[in-house]
Design goal:
By secondary structure, the chain is of the alpha/beta class. The protein contains 8 helices and 13 strands. The strands form 3 sheets. The protein has a 5-stranded mixed beta sheet with strand order 2-1-3-10-4, sandwiched between helices. A 5-stranded mixed beta sheet has the order 7-6-8-5-9, sandwiched between helices.
Length: 314
């Protein structure tokens, strides 16, 4: 089986994780690296949502034209609606979904010790909006690219108090997959920063018509609880984003195995208008609860936030 992946060290880890499961089951596997438009390092404006496909389009095209059989994605990057002809064949068991704080070498404190006017580098509007809602005094700067490049930018950002960054915000799961656990100074509580839809899980895409691959991937990789919760998060994101663009976060989980809970947030870029809420029910109601939560937050003011959004640049 031919697996398509992005070229970053993190993406390769994710592809190799899937490949190892297939090899253990007796399948021959090759991995093809495919460049995507989202891979280049950038200090440009952070994205309004994670749903624009800039990390996934090239890989999905390779599946559609037969160059690879499977594409492995960080589920957070995968658009809620896949290209025609593709199927989300498997969703891996979720690792940690949270965002982590990595401090500048000269800053010895944790999140609670960030001084007034501290500078944090982020890669998404979701992070930016919620951090500004938490601490309106923070200076937020954009940074994108491979994890190693972002960490290097943090180290080279300059002296604290003279324009240097106090820290950077990265997905905790990415740091752990890259064996960079020691870089994690703190982890954001969900009351401060809700994660992106699907954050912490992997999604494996193949042709919808490839029933053999789909059956195999479900058996070897698919995790029922993660599938239920992340599909609800993705439904929430899609329902909210259908009305426009805004900072969107969601986290769903199964409590005691039979209670489904989802929390969501819709916010504007500067964090002055933030709408949070939650829904609870049974796992069979997950999709309906996700859509109901989206409708609730839009009605409470999220729709005005969406309608006021005019540009992807923040």
């Amino acid at each position: 089986m031919r697996i398509g992946t992005r070229g970053s060290k993190l993406a390769r880890w994710q592809a190799n994780h899937v490949a190892a499961r297939l090899v253990a089951a007796g399948h021959e596997v090759t991995i093809d690296v495919i460049e995507t438009e989202g891979d280049a390092p950038s200090d440009g404006p952070v994205r309004l949502t994670g749903d624009d496909g800039q990390f996934t389009r090239a890989l999905d095209a390779a599946v559609l034209d037969g160059r690879v059989d499977l594409a492995v994605h960080a589920l957070e990057d995968l658009p809620a609606t896949l290209s025609e002809g593709l199927a989300l064949a498997a969703v891996s068991a979720r690792a940690t979904p949270w965002d982590a704080f990595v401090a500048h070498p000269d800053f010895e404190g944790r999140l609670a010790g960030l001084p007034a006017g501290a500078t944090l580098a982020v890669s998404s509007l979701r992070q930016q909006a919620q951090l500004r809602a938490w601490r309106s005094d923070l200076r937020i700067v954009p940074v994108r690219g491979p994890v190693a490049a972002r960490l290097q930018r943090l180290r080279e950002s300059g002296m604290l108090g003279d324009g240097g960054w106090h820290g950077i915000v990265l997905a905790e799961v990415a740091l752990r997959q890259l064996a960079l656990d020691s870089a994690i100074r703190d982890v954001f509580a969900p009351s401060i920063v809700l994660p992106g839809a699907g954050q912490g899980a992997l999604g494996v895409v193949c042709l919808a018509s490839n029933t053999k691959a789909r059956t195999l991937l479900v058996r070897l990789l698919d995790d029922d609880a993660t599938r239920i919760t992340t599909e609800a998060e993705r439904a929430f994101r899609q329902h909210v984003s259908d009305g426009g663009k805004a900072a969107v976060g969601a986290y769903a989980r199964l409590e005691t195995g039979s209670v489904f809970v989802i929390d969501g947030v819709v916010a504007d870029a500067d964090g002055t208008r933030v709408f949070r809420g939650g829904q609870k029910g049974t796992p069979s109601q997950a999709q309906d609860l996700a859509r109901a939560l989206a409708g609730e937050l839009l009605a409470r003011g999220g729709r005005e936030v969406l309608n006021a959004t005019r540009t992807d640049e923040v």
